[in-house]
Specification:
Two copies of one chain form a homodimer. By secondary structure, chain A is mainly alpha-helical. Chain A contains seven helices and three strands, in the order ααβααββααα. In chain A, strands 1-3-2 form a three-stranded antiparallel sheet. In chain A, a hairpin with a 7-residue loop joins strand 2 and strand 3. Chain A is elongated and about 55 Å long. Chain A binds a DNA duplex through helix 2 and helix 4. Chains A, B: It comes from Streptomyces viridochromogenes (strain DSM 40736 / JCM 4977 / BCRC 1201 / Tue 494). Chains A, B: Pfam families: MarR_2. Chains A, B: This is MarR family transcriptional regulator.
DNA sequence: TTCAGATGCTTCAGTAACTGAAACAACCAT
DNA sequence: ATGGTTGTTTCAGTTACTGAAGCATCTGAA
């Protein structure tokens, strides 16, 4: 009766796992903090920054944006509205299907997104404290977690 | 001589670093998603869940809560209001300084927080896919990043 | 061809998170 | 006591977000 269930992945996290979870939480918190701060430096909210970054890679219809951001389409409308009002994003209607509006980053929008990406110091500075070997180990562990 | 400068933090992120940054971004996204989902299962918002988790460790005055959550005290008022309305948190005035209100988790609040913590599957499940050695390497790399 | 249903976006309540200013009470040092 | 500081709340205003309509457009089948 020492171990009732046969090592289910859900029960009894060992100390090592717990510490890693704790550390990941810390990393998440700092990353977020840094991201919001970088966004604020460009007078953007976090949501606006995320959307703009997505559009910087490729134009996307509103519906896809909602899927990427994991929120309702009606929400995307507002965020795009505000970005459009500032000239960072444009709505183009898709000639192939006139229902869909494709959001596309303007030149200015792409510039802001690039600048934003560069001011994201976190995960660059702290990573610098790691040796090459440690970075490789980190990469492999993260890959393993996500795969 | 092998490394002239102790790895200048600002310039020229190499491919490895970039990939790690990318992976961390992915981990952050999944962690957040999971956290919000776990919170929603308990009819809590993310902010409420974070605050309740803090209080589960120790009672805190409003001001400290604001510092921990990195937001304005006036914001904390609202979040605690809503948690208090649901009996998960209580306000007690500090006898030593009658200005300060100490927020403390109720029994029910602690129970919810515990349950929340347990339903946080992410970073436990994917971690299970890692060998002990990999987990140690991950821990050390994360420690290095945060220290 | 036409029309009923599906799909994409917006609009409209309604809630929560958040900020910054202003009000208040209680503390503290002179 | 008095004046300045500090902890909390209140208030107005913005954004993010959801879910239910609503409108326009597309699509498939009769």
């Amino acid at each position: 009766m020492a171990s009732p269930t046969p090592t289910p992945p859900n029960n009894r996290p060992d100390a090592l796992t717990l510490e890693v979870v704790e550390l990941i939480g810390e990393v998440v918190a700092r990353f977020h903090e840094d991201y919001e701060e970088a966004a604020a430096e460009h007078t953007l909210t976090g949501a606006q920054a995320r959307l703009l970054s997505l559009l910087c890679l490729e134009p996307l219809p509103m519906r896809r944006l909602a899927q990427r951001l994991k929120c309702e389409p009606s929400n995307v409308t507002g965020i795009v509205d505000r970005l459009e009002a500032r000239g960072l994003v444009e709505r183009q209607s898709d000639p192939a299907d006139r229902r869909v509006k494709v959001a596309v980053a303007t030149e200015e929008g792409r510039r802001v997104a690039r600048s934003l990406r560069e001011s994201l110091r976190f995960a660059r500075e702290p990573l610098a404290g790691l040796s090459e070997g440690e970075r490789v180990a980190l990469r492999d562990a993260l890959r393993g977690m996500l795969g």
